[in-house]
Design brief:
heterodimer, A: 111 residues, mainly beta, 4-stranded antiparallel sheet, 11 strands, globular, B: 113 residues
């Protein structure tokens, strides 16, 4: 059984640029959730995808968008990067009503 | 809006101690509660999941209990070891068909040899 994987591990961008983060869900899981974790804080929910449809969204602006593919992998896209977007981005996969399993995260630094 | 609080924010104990980490939440209408461990700069490792009809889960030296009516969960770690040093996070989910988790800020545990 393959766990949740994320790419890239680290990323450095400048303000105003766009970024795409990727996540492969654990085998058998049909739900992917994305979280943003600032230093010293708990993860904050960005959005969730269930069977390729958005299934809920947290308090993040529209420049945060996502996709889920037929194999249940997912992308997080962030446009017009701001300095405050610097954080660890975590992807979690699950079955829709069960516990979540997290990937190692992508560390994004915006300069 | 669901608020999750973890106390204490940091804890330093000598090796071998039994310890309790606390998690409280404001809305008792939760579905699942999950405890995680996070090492510095890493992702979250699931420790224990307490599902909607359950009140307790155990795995090795770890035991988690849940009291929905009082809005509290505790994580008990027996015979702590230096390898247990990490940040421990609790998270609660809202509904059966929408698996959004609300997280606390964590308890940073340091177990001294």
């Amino acid at each position: 059984e393959t766990g949740v994987t994320q790419s890239p591990t680290h990323l450095i961008k400048t303000r105003g640029q766009q970024v795409t983060l990727r996540c492969s869900s654990q085998s058998g899981h049909n739900t992917v959730s994305w979280y943003q974790q600032a230093l010293g804080q708990g993860p904050q929910f960005i959005f969730q995808y269930y069977r390729e449809e958005e299934n809920g969204r947290g308090n993040f602006p529209p420049r945060f968008s996502g996709l889920q593919f037929p194999n249940y992998s997912s992308e997080l896209n962030v446009n017009a990067l701001e300095l405050d977007d610097s954080a660890l981005y975590l992807c979690a996969s699950s079955l829709v009503s069960e516990g979540q399993f997290f990937g190692p995260g992508t560390r994004l630094t915006v300069l | 809006k669901q608020e999750v609080t973890q106390i204490p924010a940091a804890l330093s104990v000598p090796e071998g101690e039994n310890l309790v980490l606390n998690c409280s939440f404001t809305d008792s209408a939760i579905y699942n509660l999950q405890w995680f461990r996070q090492d510095p700069g890493k992702g979250l490792t699931s420790l224990l999941l307490i599902q909607s009809s359950q009140r307790e889960q155990t795995s090795g030296r770890l035991n988690a209990s849940l009291d929905k009516s009082s809005g509290r969960s505790t994580l008990y770690i027996a015979a702590s070891q230096p390898g247990d040093s990490a940040t421990y996070l609790c998270a609660v989910s809202r509904g059966s068909n929408f698996n959004k988790f609300y997280f606390g800020s964590g308890t940073k545990l340091n177990v001294k040899p």
